[in-house]
UniProtKB/TrEMBL annotation:
<dbReference type="GO" id="GO:0003677">
    <property type="term" value="F:DNA binding"/>
</dbReference>
<dbReference type="Pfam" id="PF13560">
    <property type="entry name" value="HTH_31"/>
</dbReference>
<dbReference type="Pfam" id="PF17765">
    <property type="entry name" value="MLTR_LBD"/>
</dbReference>
<protein>
    <recommendedName>
        <fullName>HTH cro/C1-type domain-containing protein</fullName>
    </recommendedName>
</protein>
<dbReference type="InterPro" id="IPR001387">
    <property type="entry name" value="Cro/C1-type_HTH"/>
</dbReference>
<dbReference type="InterPro" id="IPR010982">
    <property type="entry name" value="Lambda_DNA-bd_dom_sf"/>
</dbReference>
<feature type="domain" description="HTH cro/C1-type">
    <location>
        <begin position="34"/>
        <end position="88"/>
    </location>
</feature>
<dbReference type="InterPro" id="IPR041413">
    <property type="entry name" value="MLTR_LBD"/>
</dbReference>
Amino acid sequence: MTTRTMDTAQELAAFLRSRRERLDPGRMGLPSHRRARRTPGLRREEVAELAGVSTDYVVRLEQGRGLRPSAEVLGALARALCLDASERDYLFDLAERRRPGTTGGPAASAAPSLARLVGDLSPLPAMLLDHRYDILAWNPEMARLLPGFEAAPPSRLNAMRLCLLHPAMRDFYADREQVLRDGIAHLRAAWAAHPEDRELSDLIAEFVTQDEDFARSWTEREVSVNGRGRKLLRHPVAGAITVDFEVLLPLQDPGLRLLIYRAADEESRASLDRLCAR
């Protein structure tokens, strides 16, 4: 990603190559008598055979010649490459074959009712994010929980930017590497779903330039959208806090994400209560 907007043909080519190269021929049930392999993964002709298309077609796709595969061909390639649901969505987005119900532009701001809902979720820390991880609404508990949150100007309130570039957040996540990988995988999925979003492309370019960990993970082309899980936080005042998180999608604004934290144990609940009462 070196331009302001995505080159979908080249990204589709790179994604197909990366997913072909990760597959183990033995686990795919392919004959063992074929000639010795000099590169990892499946050969193009093997993918073509599994997908029911010509080898030349797979070659042209991997060379980024601007082909527009049909939904049927994309489905066959997804099965041949053993893509999971998030990777399949990414493949369809790159080929500009959107699934039903996923069209429509992203919301530019939080609807008043959603902003009120974020506030009403107190005392649970909550915030509303768009597909870029820009923070559109938050409650006081979330502002107190995230180090450096209140010092950041509103125009720069982005969850990934805080995590990557704000010094106070550097040691906040106990498993920072996994948190970054999950966030980057989400941004890559959003990047494919909104290929003309120049703000998103500029944001990714900023992160690639300024953070080595982001730049390295971005090249791995991991794609996923994680809707729930657990995080261990290391707050500079409250100490260790373990939270369970849940991500909810508003029906009328599916491009937005409502993130809610809940204490995972009584000790963490007590720590959150003390922090939010300050």
